[in-house]
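Handout, section B. The chain below has 128 residues.
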Amino acid sequence: MPNPVELVKLRSAEAVAHAMADDVGTARSAAGDTRYLADGIAYRGGHNLADVADILLSVLAGDHEGARRTRSELDARTRTSGGNTYWVPIATSWIDGSLAAAEHLPAVGWVDGPVASLGRWAAVVTRR
């Protein structure tokens, strides 16, 4: 792959796909690989993607407190970097539902409003 950032994104997408397929071990491995690859190229955003995968895994396992801890780390990192702030309300929708998520970082410009957009994201974990 000529662009190493794309490899980080690909590996994080694999983590999410494996999480949704209930292949927890492979998903955790892919999230770890995402962090490793991100560190190798000094791509801090890769840790955001790994956090998202880890949060999804925690929520699917019923570990909402663990998901909240990781979300707090993600929130702190995105606030300092100024990038990818939309992942925090998306993760919040998985943990606490779309209404709670809509209250977090309302400055995100959701296409059809926060409640509708985040409702679709919340459905990712409820429609399994």
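Note. DSSP finds seven helices and no strands in the chain. Compare this with the example in section A.
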